[in-house]
Fold this protein.
Amino acid sequence: GNSVTQMEGPVTLSEEAFLTINCTYTATGYPSLFWYVQYPGEGLQLLLKATKADDKGSNKGFEATYRKETTSFHLEKGSVQVSDSAVYFCAHMNTGFQKLVFGTGTRLLVSP
Amino acid sequence: DAGVIQSPRHEVTEMGQEVTLRCKPISGHNSLFWYRQTMMRGLELLIYFNNNVPIDDSGMPEDRFSAKMPNASFSTLKIQPSEPRDSAVYFCASSLQRGEDTQYFGPGTRLTVL
């Protein structure tokens, strides 16, 4: 079936450290892939997305590349800030459908 | 521009009571989604509408849950009777049109059923 698997959190980093949050998916066809971010007390916000293989989504210094061969969409940032502390959700949506399938979320904690 | 608006932001009620959650999607958006977030089950899609018509309600947990969208600018999610296991954060999201894949989320309603 369709699913998304993310690394368990929390991920604890110091400011300016390199971030990787792993995400793999199972889906039929060629889904669109997403990273959403949820700040404390708020709803989810789209961080970045990619709609086809080898596409790279990027926003606010975050990047993720659609890897069809490994069915992965890992989130990376070269230098995290305290303000990046949040929960990050990987998700996919099959082409022609509207249902987002979310991973369980990964909490990121960045200390000064 | 106003985003998705949800009310109330917090709701505390007693078991057996009726609960109504409200959502106003972004103006001009034609698709609306209701999600539930819990620690145990993560984010689950409950139901979604296109042009005010329910398309998929397979995620609605049981008959105690119902959702309506009487017009393009308003939707409700009702739980009757409520139970403690319904305690969760309920999110509403909207997207521009069928096939448009970016969904915009509201701030959520935190429901506590005692």
